[in-house]
Write a structure and sequence with these properties.
The structure holds 2 protein chains of 2 kinds. By secondary structure, chain A is mostly helical. Chain A is 63% helix and 6% strand. In chain A, the strands form 2 sheets. Chain A has a two-stranded parallel ribbon. A two-stranded antiparallel ribbon of chain A has the order 3-4. The longest helix of chain A has 34 residues. Classes of the chains: A mainly alpha, B alpha+beta.
Chain lengths: 267, 411
């Protein structure tokens, strides 16, 4: 027969020393129980925030890197394609976990918020304070609104299939649009020594990056594979589609890694 | 254990205390043969040596991509190249850079064996002491750095400003331009995100009670936790965000009606006119004697000009070996200026007009060792190249590059 655990403050008539093990209970009543649960919230959320902020910034640096570090790399062909494709990973995985375990539609918002906070810390401390670049030239892009869209879609549809089809598609589709208010001031044209440049191009030229010569930038070049000047809408739609595919992949991964059997095996 | 840790910490502190700050840019890092056979830099001037924030530093000189450029390395004739500057980050801002008068905001190509003249104007931004190099970055090869000089910047960075006028007539300071919009829009979306998360965490505790409820209800019934209010709030957020994105886009379009995509593309630059074939060279023999740190080269020199010529300088891997008999006493600009003031000896150093003469030169100096060029003998291809500077009686200079096989001498 297995031993029963009985809180110490619960009186027993005739305890059997061989069968009953008395333990001092950490929680004595429902008020304390609630307080303990509240403390779990207050401790877990900041820790997860730090953890996912660090992971996402590291992941982003490896997969996107210069494309989002510098204002003169955020073009309208590659940046809006590469960034949502990479960034959808954590919202998908964390979204599954939060939904499956808590029925909370906030994985994507939480991931984008933590990424934004960690990005600001990195850009301010590393790029601005340490390396000396003006903060406007290295400030992060914003994704929070798109994260909320994914979460809201998940709650309304209660389906990861529909969330991928609508939410993830919008995540890719609207990447450039949601950031346009931040980018537009850096797209004003300038005649600089007889060369046509944008404000961002000029900042890239002026603020010296010895290890990043101009030709290293992977940005839009003229191509026949577009309709007139409609580069951004075509890229946006394509980005939406590839983000859907990547979202489904990482939702699947999220389901796999949030299965309890992994924890059971470890414990 | 604690003792060991204490000792380790003490060693670390001592090591850091007595370590010198490193300011170099990897001048000696590359293989000797590669440094000798890629880019020749000469007539480098960097002035003034002391300036204040907002004042202008000029970096100028000449360069020539070597015709002996290693075949296995991407060269600036086939691949893109960019005139850059080697300083520790944006301590200066580059306000102008030109090669043969052509603005070098973008990348270009340089022909091997041709000569180019460059000038870079930098505006001091951060106080400090900096080792300033001209650099040519070559696509798929990397940065090739030129000779450096120390520059000291005084003043206060807070005084720095970078004012530009756009094509639409707006006057902006690049140090702060667009920051207001960045802060406003980031703040707006952070508030939206906080509102969304705040809705779900408006009443603590949340995680454990919901976790237990989901576990109790099971996967098929856990959606019972979602209320009609949750649905309505989600619909409001979904629609509201789409409207906010559209609104912010159209607002931005009204604020910035004229914008252009990021600009790229190549520029074309022609080399300086040829100096003609006044002097011709043919390598006969080249040997590097390791114990003496001495490089001996025998060359056949043909003088097609009208005035006798003499060899005054042997330049390789940014080191200038000077023939004092021809050029006199040339002082180094600073302690790191790579000049061997008496490093070049030349036998039979006078070639008359119309004459072809074999001359023997010896480039000898400790700089072979300190700049890690003695490792030339361990390069896998044992080839060298160097720029020679001849002078006629009127002081006119002719530069020609010589290169080829090198044979080491071990005793």
């Amino acid at each position: 027969m297995s031993a029963r655990y009985i809180p110490a403050d619960v009186e027993q008539n005739e305890p059997d020393a061989n069968e009953v093990r008395h333990v001092a209970g950490a929680v004595k009543n429902s008020a304390e129980q609630l307080a303990a649960y509240r403390n779990i919230d207050l401790a877990t959320l900041p820790l997860l925030f730090l953890l996912f902020g660090g992971i996402s910034v590291f992941l982003f640096a490896l997969t996107v890197g210069d494309w989002d570090f510098w204002m003169d790399w955020r073009d309208r062909r590659w940046w809006p394609l590469v960034t949502p494709f990479s960034l959808i990973l954590l919202p998908a995985v964390l979204g599954v976990f939060m939904w499956k375990k808590f029925r909370l539609p906030m994985g994507a918002t939480f991931a984008t918020m933590s990424f934004l906070a960690a990005s600001w810390v990195s850009r301010y401390a590393n790029f601005h304070e340490f390396a000396g670049f003006p903060l406007n030239f290295v400030s992060p892009s914003t994704w929070v609104g798109l994260g909320v869209i994914i979460d809201a879609t998940l709650l309304i549809s209660r389906s990861f299939y529909i969330t991928g089809f609508i939410g993830a598609f919008l995540f890719g589709l609207l990447t450039y649009t949601i950031n346009w208010p931040i980018f537009a001031p850096f797209r004003m044209p300038i005649d600089y020594n007889g060369t046509m440049v944008t404000v961002a191009d000029l900042m890239g030229y002026m603020y010296i990056r010895t290890a990043i010569p101009e030709y290293v930038r992977i940005i839009e070049e003229s191509t026949l594979r577009t309709f007139g000047e409609a580069v951004t809408p075509l890229t946006a739609v394509f980005a939406g589609f590839v983000t859907i595919l990547n979202y489904y992949l990482w939702v699947w991964v999220g389901f796999k890694i949030s299965e309890s059997r992994w924890m059971n095996r470890i414990v | 254990m604690e003792k060991n840790i204490s000792r380790l910490l003490l060693c670390l502190v001592l090591f850091l205390s007595f370590s010198e700050m490193t300011y170099a840019h990897g001048e000696k890092a590359q293989q000797a043969g590669l440094r000798m056979r890629t880019m020749n830099w000469w007539d480098i001037e960097i002035y003034p040596k002391k300036l204040d924030v907002n004042q202008i530093l000029t970096v100028k000189g000449k360069f020539s991509p070597s015709p002996w450029w290693p075949k296995h390395m991407a060269n600036p004739e086939d691949m893109l190249a960019y005139l850059n500057i080697g300083v520790p980050g944006p301590v200066f801002v580059r306000i102008d850079s030109r090669v043969n008068g052509v603005p070098m905001i973008r990348s270009t190509h340089f022909k091997k064996g041709e000569t180019y003249e460059f000038e870079i104007k930098l505006k001091a931004r951060s106080p400090g002491r900096y080792h300033v190099h001209p650099v040519i970055s070559v696509e798929d090869t990397g940065p090739i750095i030129g000779p450096a000089q120390w520059v000291e910047v005084g003043g206060d960075q807070a005084d720095f400003e970078n004012i530009i006028t756009t094509l639409t007539g707006e006057v902006i300071d690049l140090e702060t331009h667009g920051m207001k919009q960045i802060i406003i829009w980031h703040s707006f979306w952070v508030v939206v995100g906080l509102l969304w998360m705040g809705y779900w965490f408006r009443k603590l505790p949340v995680l454990m009670p919901r976790y237990k409820e989901v576990a109790r209800l099971g996967a098929n019934h856990a959606n019972e936790l979602i209320t009609m209010k949750d649905m309505l709030v989600s619909i409001v957020f979904f629609g509201g965000i789409l409207m906010a994105i559209a609104g912010s886009y159209f607002w931005t379009q009204s604020q910035y009606p004229i914008t252009t995509p990021l600009q790229t593309g190549e520029v074309e630059v022609q080399p300086l006119p040829s100096q003609g074939n006044v002097v011709e060279l043919k390598l006969h023999d080249a040997r590097y004697r390791i114990p003496g740190r001495s490089f001996k080269v025998e060359i056949d020199v043909t003088n097609n000009g009208t005035s006798p010529i003499r060899l005054g300088e042997f330049l390789t891997a940014n080191i200038r070996f000077i023939n004092k008999e021809v050029l006199g006493d040339i002082k180094p600009v600073d302690a790191q200026d790579l000049i061997a003031q008496q490093g070049l000896q030349v036998d039979d150093n006078l070639v008359q007009p119309g004459e072809t003469r074999r001359i023997t030169l010896r480039a000898e100096d400790a700089l072979w060792e300190t700049m890690r060029l003695t490792s030339l003998v361990y390069d896998p291809d044992s080839r060298f190249a160097a720029m020679l500077f001849f002078y006629d009686e009127n002081g006119k200079r002719y530069h020609l590059e010589v290169g080829g096989q090198m044979m080491p001498t071990f005793s």
